[in-house]
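User: Good morning. I'm curious how heme C would be positioned relative to this chain. Could you predict the structure with it bound?
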Amino acid sequence: MKKQIILTAVGLVFATMTSYAGDIDAQGLWDKHCKKCHGDTGAADTKLGEKLEIGDYTKAETLADVSDEELFADTKNGVDGTKMPSFEKKLSDDEINALVAHIRAMAK
Ligand code: HEC
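Assistant: Good morning! Here's the predicted structure, ligand included:
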């Protein structure tokens, strides 16, 4: 009986955590904050994307050597020497993690 209660409690905590992560609208955040430079699909096929020579993230090889931690840090802190802005004040860590997953999903 006791074991069952503990298992239920663990299950509830887990359900709350996963539903929270799932509540983040990564596509919506991308459209709002990233699309104008990186493009709808991540191909950077925008005026700004071309001007700033941003990589095509729909190609798997573009970010193949970049870790999730680096993608996270680049989004949070910006990329020195480029026009990639810091989103530290605009996005929470959970939102940035959702965007990292979103970027990964763009690669073919
Ligand atoms: C003002 C234009 C602009 C906006 C807006 C922008 N970026 Fe960038 N981003 C850049 C540029 C320029 C680079 C550097 C060139 C490159 O890495 O291809 C870059 C690089 C990156 C990188 C590093 C990739 C690598 O090669 O390591 C990541 C990750 C990234 N952006 C994610 C995002 C996310 C997520 C958003 C939205 C929250 C965003 N960017 C919004 C211009 C922008």
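The mean pLDDT is 90. The two ends are 48 Å apart (CA to CA).
Let me know if you'd like a different ligand tried.
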